[in-house]
Write a structure and sequence with these properties.
The structure is a single chain. The chain is of the alpha+beta class and 198 residues long. It is built from seven helices and five strands, in the order H-H-H-H-H-E-E-E-E-E-H-H. The chain is 55% helix and 20% strand. A five-stranded antiparallel beta sheet has the order 1-2-3-4-5.
Length: 198
């Protein structure tokens, strides 16, 4: 498990570094569209949905678009400054857990259409509003909050049907840490991550 976390952190770091010179689109919406198009092309070209190689390709397409450090810091909230020596460990475990969760959800998509609705930018902050429209049923609003990191727009929160992913995890983490230790939180994330991979 530790080996895979180290590979993830290294892989994300390398992808972020490589991506710096490879970004052609300059607006948050255009950069997000590029990422989602890459993800959808990977999905459409897949022979088998549960293929480990597909998960790896989805990871390569998706993971660099997120600012995992900022997401983890905000999700941990007031507890962040209490663990200075273990912040990088938490970021790695959180990124592995949440990244695999997203990849699992995307891997189950079938015939969904993603519509880009609106983009708003204020200095180095932005929000891109999208809708996921299934072949049957009601559309789901998914809004991405991004901030500028050098020339790239990185996602630091996702709001699904008006519920912030970061705020949702922050309340869960607060409950766990109110009755347990930081080690308990790390273990729960690792256990849940194992379930995503099954």
């Amino acid at each position: 498990m530790i080996g895979s976390i180290k590979r993830l952190v290294l892989g994300v770091a390398v992808n972020l570094w490589l991506a710096q010179g490879a970004v052609y689109a300059d607006t948050p919406m255009a950069q997000l569209q590029e990422t989602i198009q890459q993800v959808m092309a990977t999905m459409n070209g897949a022979v088998k949905r549960g293929d480990p190689e597909l998960r790896e390709k989805l990871r390569d397409a998706l993971m660099p678009r997120f600012d995992w450090f900022e997401m983890a810091r905000q999700a941990l909230g007031k507890h962040w400054n209490a663990i200075p020596s273990r912040q990088h460990e938490f970021v790695a475990v959180f990124a592995e857990f949440l990244g695999n969760s997203y990849i699992g959800k995307i891997g189950s998509y079938k015939d969904e259409k993603i519509v880009f609705v609106h983009e708003s930018i204020e200095k180095n902050l932005a929000q891109v509003n999208t809708k996921i429209i299934p072949s049957k049923g009601e559309p789901t609003s998914v809004n991405y909050r991004l901030h500028r990191v050098q020339k790239e727009w990185k996602i630091y929160d996702v709001v699904v049907e008006d519920i912030s992913v970061v705020a949702n995890y922050r309340s869960q983490f607060n409950r766990i840490l109110a009755n347990g230790s930081f080690d308990d939180l790390i273990q729960r994330l690792k256990d849940k991550d194992s379930n995503h991979k099954d």
